[in-house]
Amino acid sequence: MVEVELKKKQTCKFTYHSVDLDQLLDMSYEQLIQLYSAWHRQRLNWRLRRKQHSLLKRLSKAKKEAPPMKKPGVAKTQLQDMIILLEMMGNMVGVYNGKTFNQVEIKPEMISHYSSKFSITYKSVKHGRPGFGATRSFPFIPLK
After folding, report:
1. What would the pLDDT profile of 8-56 be if each residue is shown by its tens digit?
2. Quick one: CA torsion of 30, 35, 37, 43, rounded to 10 degrees?
3. φ/ψ (deg, to 5) at 80
4. Which residues pair with 96 in a beta bridge?
């Protein structure tokens, strides 16, 4: 009987600038800032604004209040210029797109991106037939 070796399914480990997620969680805030791009690093060194601090507080509060093994509640915000930080990971954020709040679950791949990237503010254009007067041959378009 031929023994068939079962191949282990290789799972993709998340790394941020060649640093594993476990090592990222163990890093201090200053070490973590050094991994970000220059613009994000400069912006975080300028300090976060009051609204951004209040969002981080609401996210940490929602994470503490959530029962174990459950997703935390949604924290709504209009901050589209918020840089997604490591401490926000695993939370649910409702990002306002001008009409509604889009729920976004923060995942490790989203670190150092802006929150607006995950809440699109426009609809894609669906082109149809030309309207009345849109072309020179409009009298020849049959009217239904």
Report:
1. 666 788 888 889 989 988 999 889 889 999 999 898 888 889 999 999 9
2. -20
3. -95, -10
4. 101
Q: How far is CA 44 from CA 100, 109, 127, 140, in A?
A: 28, 19, 42, 61
Name the residue type at position 134.
A
Asked if residue 86 lies in contact with residue 107, where contact means CB atoms within 8 angstroms, the answer is no
Q: What are phi and psi of 101, to 5 degrees?
A: -95, 120
- The three-class DSSP label of residue 122 is coil
Q: What are phi and psi of 31, to 5 degrees?
A: -70, -35
Cβ atoms of residues 75 and 59 within 8 Å: yes
Q: Whole-model pTM above 0.90?
A: no
